[in-house]
Specification:
Elements (H helix, E strand, L loop, with lengths): L3 E12 L38 H13 L3 E2 L2 E2 L2 E4 L9 E4 L6 E10 L2 E14 L3 E8 L2 E7 L6 E7 L6 H18 L11 E11 L9 E6 L2 H20 L7 E6 L4 E7 L9 E2 L6 E2 L2 H9 L5 H12 L3 H8 L2 H11 L5 H19 L10 H12 L5 H14 L3 H8 L7 H14 L1 H8 L4 H13 L6 H11 L1
Parallel strand pairs: 12-13
Antiparallel strand pairs: 1-10, 1-11, 2-6, 3-16, 4-5, 4-15, 6-7, 7-10, 8-9, 11-12, 13-14
Helix pairs in contact: 2-3, 5-6, 7-8, 7-9, 9-10, 12-14, 12-15, 13-14, 14-15
C-alpha cells in the first residue's frame, strides 16, 4: 500500500421517517408480515399512478440543508431501468440529472485538521423490496420476495471521491449518522435497513491526480463493516496492481464471516440504466415561501450545539463533542441541567457513570432507568455535602437497578453524610487514642499513616463522615 493512494466515494441511502410511502398511502412500518403493505402503485401495476408524499419532500430538504446543500427549486423524477427480483416492475423512480439537493459538504476533524468531504448530490428515490434466501423449497434452493419495502422513501446521499482511507470513511459515516438523526428525518437504524451504504474504492499511484478503476462494495450493514470491507478491498487491488494485473470494474459483496470481498456482477454505468423522465410525475417547482417555512423548522445541529455547550456552559471542546455525538445523550444532559446548575459535574456523570453503565448493560439512553430529574437530585445531594462522592456512586447503582429517587434511597439506607463537627471530633479522638503508633509514624514523616487514620474514621462512621471535614479535624488534632 505504500505505493498507492486510496480514493473512496460513498453512496448512503437513508430511509425517511414518513408514515406512508413515497408515492402511495401504504404504511412504512417496519416488521410487518411479508407483502402485507403493498398496493398497485408501489408494485407498479398498470394504471397505478404515483403521487408525491409532501412530508418526504420536506424531510429530504431538511436533510439537504443540514448537509449544507443547495436546494434546487426546479427538479424532476426519472425512471431508472433495471431487472432485479426485488423490484417486480423492473424500474425504480429516482432522480438523475436534476436532483433535489446538490453541492453540499460535511467537515471532518482528521488528525487535528479540518477536512471537507464534498457531497455531489442528495436525491429522492423509492426503495426496492427485500429478498430472503432460504433452504429448499420443493426440493430446490429458494429466494423469497417481500415487497413491503418497495416505495419506502429514500434519500440517496452521494459524496465526491474525497475520502482517503477506510478509517476516514467510518468517521464520515458516524458524523453523517449524527447529523441526520439530529434533523429527525430518519432513525438511521442500520440493523433495520433505514441507513445503508455502498462504497466505491479505487487506487492510484501515490502523488498522481487521476482515478483508477473502481469497485463497488455492497452488503455493508455497519460502520465497522464499511471500514473492514474497504481495508480488504484496498489491499486486494494493491496486490493485483503490483502483479501487473488490472482491476475489474464490478460490484463486490462483503462476506462478513470470511472477512473478504467477492465478485457479484459487472458494474453498470449510468447509461446502462436508460434513465428517462418519469412520465407519471410532473417536474417539481418549489415555492420560495414554502421552502422558507421548512427551513425555519430546522433544529439546532450538532456543530452549533457543541459550540453553544462550550460558549454558554463552559465545557471543554472534548466534553462538548462527546455529549453531542448522539442527540438523545445531549437531550438527556440538557434535561439534567433544567434541575441542576452544575454543567461540568453533570457532564462528568453523564459521560462517565451513566454512559459507562449503559454500555455495560447494552442499553440505549432511551431505555435508561435513571431519569434526568433523578440524576439531578443525586448531583444536588452530593453538591450540598449530604452524601460523599463514594456514597453517590453506590446510590447511583441502586437508582439504576430500581429506578428510585436518590432521596428515597439515601433515607432508606441511612446514608446521610455526617457533617456535625462535635460528633466527628469525638470519633477522631477515639481513633487517635486507639492508634498511637500511627500517630507517631505520621509525626515522624510517614504520610501513609495519615491515610490509615482517615480510613479508620470512615470505618467507624460506616463511610458516612464528610471526608473533607475528617481531614481538617485530623490535621488539627495531630
Amino acid at each position: 500500500m505504500q505505493d498507492w493512494e486510496t480514493v473512496i466515494g460513498l453512496e448512503v441511502h437513508v430511509a425517511l421517517l414518513t408514515k406512508s410511502k413515497l408515492f402511495c398511502g401504504c404504511s412504512t412500518e417496519y416488521g410487518a408480515a411479508p407483502n402485507s403493505q403493498t398496493c398497485p402503485v408501489c408494485l407498479g401495476h398498470p394504471g397505478g399512478l404515483p403521487v408525491l408524499n409532501e412530508q418526504a419532500l420536506e424531510y429530504a430538504i431538511k436533510a439537504g440543508l443540514a448537509l449544507n446543500c443547495r436546494i434546487n427549486y426546479s427538479c424532476k423524477f426519472d425512471r431508472k431501468q433495471y431487472f432485479y427480483p426485488d423490484m417486480a416492475k423492473n424500474y425504480q423512480i429516482s432522480q438523475d440529472d436534476q436532483p433535489l439537493c446538490s453541492q453540499g459538504y460535511v467537515d471532518l476533524d482528521v488528525e487535528g485538521e479540518r477536512k471537507r468531504i464534498r457531497i455531489n448530490r442528495a436525491h429522492l428515490e423509492e426503495d426496492a423490496g427485500k429478498l430472503t434466501h432460504e433452504g429448499d423449497l420443493v426440493g430446490a434452493p429458494s429466494s423469497l420476495v417481500d415487497s413491503n419495502r418497495c416505495g419506502v422513501p429514500l434519500l440517496e446521499i452521494v459524496t465526491e471521491p474525497d475520502i482517503s482511507s477506510p478509517a476516514e470513511a467510518r468517521l464520515f459515516l458516524n458524523k453523517l449518522w449524527n447529523i441526520i438523526r439530529y434533523t429527525g428525518v430518519s432513525d438511521c437504524k442500520m440493523e433495520e435497513g433505514s441507513m445503508r451504504c455502498d462504497a466505491n474504492i479505487s487506487l492510484r499511484p501515490r502523488g498522481s491526480q487521476g482515478l483508477g478503476t473502481k469497485t463497488e462494495l455492497k452488503n455493508l450493514n455497519s460502520f465497522r463493516a464499511v471500514e473492514r470491507g474497504l481495508a480488504f478491498e484496498a489491499e486486494r487491488q494493491a496486490r493485483l496492481l503490483a502483479a501487473g494485473e488490472r482491476v475489474l470494474q464490478e460490484t463486490r459483496l462483503w462476506d462478513v464471516e470470511a472477512g473478504v470481498t467477492r465478485g457479484m456482477r459487472s458494474k453498470e454505468g449510468a447509461h446502462d440504466y436508460r434513465y428517462f423522465p418519469e412520465p407519471n410525475l410532473p417536474p417539481l417547482s418549489l415555492d420560495a415561501a414554502w421552502l422558507e417555512r421548512v427551513s425555519q423548522t430546522m433544529p439546532e445541529l450538532p456543530a452549533a450545539r457543541e459550540e453553544r455547550f462550550i460558549r454558554e456552559l463552559g465545557l471543554s471542546p472534548y466534553d462538548a463533542e462527546v455529549l453531542v455525538a448522539a442527540r438523545e445523550v445531549a437531550d438527556y444532559f440538557e434535561e439534567v441541567l433544567q434541575h441542576f446548575s452544575g454543567a461540568k459535574a453533570a457532564a462528568n456523570w453523564v459521560m462517565g457513570e451513566l454512559l459507562g453503565r449503559l454500555k455495560k448493560d447494552g442499553l440505549e439512553i432511551a431505555d435508561c432507568p435513571v431519569s434526568p430529574q433523578h440524576l439531578a437530585n443525586l448531583l444536588a445531594l452530593q453538591e450540598k455535602g449530604q452524601i460523599s462522592s463514594k456514597m453517590a456512586k453506590g446510590v447511583f447503582e441502586e437508582m439504576f437497578n430500581t429506578g428510585k429517587d436518590p432521596k428515597a434511597i439515601v433515607k432508606e439506607k441511612g446514608l446521610v453524610q455526617i457533617t456535625d463537627v462535635d460528633a466527628l471530633k469525638a470519633v477522631v479522638d477515639k481513633v487517635l487514642s486507639a492508634n498511637p503508633q500511627s500517630v507517631e509514624d505520621y509525626k515522624g514523616g510517614k504520610d501513609r499513616a495519615f491515610g490509615f487514620l482517615v480510613g479508620q474514621v470512615m470505618k467507624e462512621t460506616r463511610g458516612r463522615a464528610n471526608p473533607q471535614l475528617v481531614t481538617k479535624l485530623l490535621k488539627e488534632r495531630l
